[in-house]
Structure formats: structure tokens, C-alpha cells
Specification:
- The protein has 200 residues and is an alpha+beta fold.
- It has two domains: 35 residues; 105 residues, Nuclear Transport Factor 2, Chain: A (Roll), CATH 3.10.450.50.
- The protein has a four-stranded antiparallel beta sheet, covered by helices on one side.
- A hairpin with an 8-residue loop joins strand 2 and strand 3.
- Helix 1 crosses helix 2.
- The N terminus is likely disordered.
Length: 200
């Protein structure tokens, strides 16, 4: 079948190339190339110029960070807490703590029990604790060869409400679970009268 006479031949002209756009990185590339040329010819001047540019960028970054930082300080509220003056750690002994430690060394439950504040003794009694129970535990430890080797006070820290923290190191042997020698750190909380409120 022959081609139709009226059919036009395809155009041999190439399509026009799109206009070449100016790249956004052209200027930075030129600046870097110029700087490298300067650095190769005059190393000292190039390094000095680089340092100046770096400092300028750091300054701009700090300014931008301050400008972008939120001005509403309620995002991170601060709560003022009362504290004692510097240097209020005292090297004094507390009668209640000494009574407790003497009772521990002598395996005397009555002295240990009496060193607690009355409100603490009432709470322990409400939980089923008693002097007799404590004495049975101490007697068992003594039969197993337990002993208090030494004790050393570290200091007393007074609080504004009259309570005090009393810090001690106690060395003992023969106590459960392994019965070996051990060094324990005690923190006694005592009330204004010197009676023990808590032991940790």
C-alpha cells in the first residue's frame, strides 16, 4: 500500500535547548576557588582570612540562636528551695544516735528501742514490731559470733526545721547474710530533741 501524498515529512530540526539557568552554588564555588588560590600563594594571609570568616560565622550563629530562643521563661520554671549556709556540717555527737549505737554494740534491744522518737516507736508497734522481737534477733546474731568492730562519726548536718542528719560509718562482722566483715554507712535523721526519726 503506497504512502499518501499529502503526508508531511518529519522535521529534521533539533529541539531548542532550554536556557541555561544560573546555579545557586556558582558564587560559593567561585569564592572557594579564589580562597584556595589565595591560600596556595599566600598561606599566612589565607589562614588569617579563614579565621576571620570562622569567627564571623560563630558570631552570627550566636546572634541567631539568641534571636530564636523563646522569651517565655515559664517553659522552664525554677523553684527556690531553702538551704543552709555553707560550712554547716558539724562534728558533734547526738545522744540519741550514741545510745542506739551503744545498744547495737552491746546487743541491747531496749537501748536501741529507746533511742527512737515516741512517734516512731508507736508506728513500729502498730506494724507488729517490739523490743522482744528485736532482742531475739540480737541474741541470735551474738550466738552466731556477730560483733561491732568500730564506729566513726562523719558529721552532723542541721536543717532549718530543727531536724538533723547524722552520718556514721560502722564496721561489723558476723551479721547476715554472709557473716563476713563489712563497712556500713548510716544516715540518722533526728528530731530537735535528738531522738531518732529514721535510719537509712
Amino acid at each position: 500500500m503506497s504512502q499518501q501524498q499529502g503526508e508531511s515529512a518529519p522535521s529534521a530540526e533539533a529541539p531548542e535547548a532550554p536556557a541555561r539557568s544560573v546555579g545557586i552554588w556558582r558564587l560559593p564555588r567561585r569564592a572557594i576557588a579564589r580562597y584556595l588560590q589565595l591560600l596556595g600563594r599566600h598561606r599566612f594571609v589565607g589562614c588569617l582570612l579563614g579565621l576571620i570568616i570562622l569567627l564571623a560565622l560563630c558570631g552570627l550563629s550566636l546572634s541567631a540562636a539568641r534571636w530564636l530562643a523563646p522569651g517565655d521563661r515559664s517553659l522552664a520554671p525554677l523553684e527556690e528551695v531553702e538551704t543552709n549556709e555553707v560550712g554547716t556540717l558539724l562534728l558533734t555527737q547526738e545522744d540519741g544516735v550514741e545510745e542506739y549505737l551503744d545498744g547495737m554494740a552491746d546487743f541491747d534491744a531496749a537501748r536501741m528501742w529507746g533511742a527512737y522518737a515516741e512517734v516512731v516507736r508507736a508506728e513500729m508497734a502498730a506494724r507488729g514490731r517490739s523490743v522482744e522481737e528485736l532482742q531475739r534477733g540480737l541474741d541470735q546474731a551474738r550466738r552466731n559470733g556477730a560483733a561491732i568492730a568500730s564506729r566513726r562519726p562523719l558529721g552532723t548536718y542541721p536543717l532549718r526545721d530543727g531536724r538533723r542528719y547524722v552520718f556514721y560509718i560502722v564496721r561489723r562482722t558476723g551479721f547476715p547474710p554472709n557473716g563476713g566483715a563489712e563497712e556500713l554507712y548510716f544516715v540518722f535523721t533526728v528530731d530537735p530533741s535528738g531522738k531518732i526519726l529514721n535510719i537509712t
